[in-house]
């Protein structure tokens, strides 16, 4: 006997609590999530996805997102038309459409957890790297900021500039994306967990839209692609690319992906990657310093080279163009997404990168 169509859909809807149970149980057993999923099952999943999408030059994710949005709009319009034509059946049509939508959401959520989402519950990178992340003094934070300032000032001398004296990439965008893996190759000799068969990062055609949403890059777990907003200032592109590649390895937490991107950039042979990563770390660290000691912050800020000041000014000017309610809404959605994956700090978790910077600095003393 055939199962009624509605029952089949309800069966798929049950994937929502199953996926949440997977998330909940893995959050209670991070060691098992690390060993069984992140270092086991996910490695195989990522390798397969990279084989499928890694050698295709365009972003499959971007195509899928556009098609999904168009299909959703078409489906909504079609449903409204059907409801208008059959007013007596309007509630039935609406109910059926909502069940279809819930079925689609459940399949997406379950697939997300299976393909990547459990990585949110793996062991913290600080534990993997055996770092001391005990509370730091202001003096320690200041030392890290001074060290980063010195290195950023030195590295700034070796990057190329445009006609306005602002940093520009040493190669075109495609070559920049292609060579991003080189930093990870070197870094993996110190951190074996960073070793991976990387699919090539993809520049997004609709990068301007990403900027209006306040998005620098997106890892798309359904295709295993690191998608990059290529309209970003040159100072941001190398770091952002390495950040999305950190997600590609299986490090889902934003603060950890930032720190890993910094490590990959620092170990890259090209000055533009080294500078981009160091500048991003410097911004994070000095922002933390500003919250606790503004006098030291401004003193340090005055020691930034003229090149760094030009780069920061250009970056701020770039983002000012995209400050809209849409960007605020996007940030709110991202905050909700992070909390849904049991990252309780939400978007504030980006600031915790500083703890890892200090922990690494301690390990080198």
From TrEMBL:
Keywords, sorted A to Z: Membrane, Transmembrane, Transmembrane helix
Domain of life: Bacteria
Pfam families: DUF3810
InterPro entries (UniProt xref): DUF3810
Segments passing through the bilayer: 52-77, 98-118
Record's protein name: DUF3810 domain-containing protein
Species of origin: Acetivibrio mesophilus
């Amino acid at each position: 006997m055939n199962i009624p169509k509605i029952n089949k859909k309800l069966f798929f809807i049950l994937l929502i609590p199953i996926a949440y149970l997977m998330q909940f149980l893995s959050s209670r057993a991070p060691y098992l999530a690390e060993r069984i999923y992140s270092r086991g099952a996910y490695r195989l999943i990522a390798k397969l996805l990279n084989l499928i999408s890694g050698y295709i030059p365009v972003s499959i994710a971007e195509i899928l997102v556009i098609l999904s949005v168009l299909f959703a709009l078409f489906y909504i319009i079609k449903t409204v038309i059907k409801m208008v034509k059959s007013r007596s059946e309007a509630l039935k049509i609406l109910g059926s459409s909502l069940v279809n939508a819930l079925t689609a959401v459940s399949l997406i959520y379950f697939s997300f957890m299976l393909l990547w989402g459990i990585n949110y519950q793996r062991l913290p990178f600080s534990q993997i790297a055996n770092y001391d992340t005990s509370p730091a003094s202001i003096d320690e934070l200041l030392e890290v900021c001074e060290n980063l300032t010195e290195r950023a000032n030195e590295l700034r001398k070796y990057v190329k500039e445009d006609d306005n004296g602002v940093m520009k990439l040493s190669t075109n965008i495609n070559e920049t994306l292609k060579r991003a893996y080189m930093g990870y190759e070197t870094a993996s000799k110190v951190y074996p967990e960073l070793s991976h068969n990387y699919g090539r990062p993809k520049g997004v055609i609709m990068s301007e839209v990403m900027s209006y949403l306040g998005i620098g890059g997106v890892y798309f777990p359904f295709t295993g692609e690191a998608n990059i907003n290529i309209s970003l200032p040159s100072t941001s592109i190398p770091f952002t690319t390495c950040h999305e590649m950190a997600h590609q390895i299986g490090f889902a937490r934003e603060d950890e992906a930032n720190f890993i991107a910094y490590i990959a950039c620092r170990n890259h042979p090209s000055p533009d990657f080294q500078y981009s990563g160091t500048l991003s770390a410097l911004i994070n660290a000095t922002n933390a310093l500003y919250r606790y000691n503004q006098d030291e912050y401004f003193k340090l800020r005055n020691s930034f080279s003229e090149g760094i000041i030009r780069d920061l000014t250009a970056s701020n000017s770039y983002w000012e163009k995209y400050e809209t309610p849409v960007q605020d809404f996007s940030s709110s959605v991202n905050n909700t997404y992070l909390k849904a994956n049991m990252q309780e700090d939400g978007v504030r978790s980006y600031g915790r990168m500083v703890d890892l910077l200090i922990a690494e600095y301690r390990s080198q003393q």
